[in-house]
Fold:
Amino acid sequence: MTSFNQKTILITGAASGIGLLMAELAISRGVSHLIMLDINKKALEQTREQLTSPGCEIHSIPVDLSSEIEIREALKQISARELQVDILINNAGIVTGKDFEKHSEEEIEKSIQVNSIAPMKLTLGLLPQMIRKGSGYIVNISSAAGMLANPGMSVYCASKWALSGWSHSLRIEMERKSTGVKVLTVTPYYIDTGMFRGVSSPLIPILKPEKVAKRIIRAIERERIILRTPGIIYLLPFVKGILPQRMLDVLIGKMFGIYDSMKTFKGRNDDQNPAG
Structure:
């Protein structure tokens, strides 16, 4: 079992959505230091004030995760404060929500940077101290979209496929070398936050953020390596493996209505949100 008590936890996208909810749960479980990274400076400050707790020192660091310079600066600040991160939750993410041909080059690059590359760079910066200590937990919030193609979110799918592949590979590397560092890959369905506001899902229920946050925290405590939610998502790799692609298109696209789920997508007005 992994305990949060007297640990230092870093959460990206911590100012809202499941990032904020996981921060609240971590404090309730006794973390001594909470490091919050988010692009929204105003929301970050409001969250810091909201979460103020006598038993937990809260550090809020505004950062644009699409900027390598800002990621490096955030890591420098963490080091300067002599903080040793025990649990890293790579949660922040963005989705554009449009057909591929309508994307700009900047939108493509930013999606890949925030959803795929930033988690790798943050982990690269913090992993050596975890290995030296012989313990640590890296939690990567990917998506069911990292296992299934979907119209209207092609770049998001690509970024989450990359994140999942890297996360699983990192876990195996850490285990083979007996580093003591654990890796959890989370692949949730749509979560009812502003990030996916407006999406439709006729058969599979859209997830409540409170439940997702609790499941992730419990998965860390129980030292899980994979968390898929809801439970039906555990069947997805099997179904993909046995069905021809055209049959999969009919099952997923027409029967479950997934391929039309982004037609009503609205999203948020801000450009970075907790990943779902």
Q: What stands out?
A: The chain has one domain: 8-274. The mean pLDDT is 95. The beta strands are 8-12, 33-38, 57-62, 87-90, 92-93, 136-141, 181-188, 226-229, 273-274.
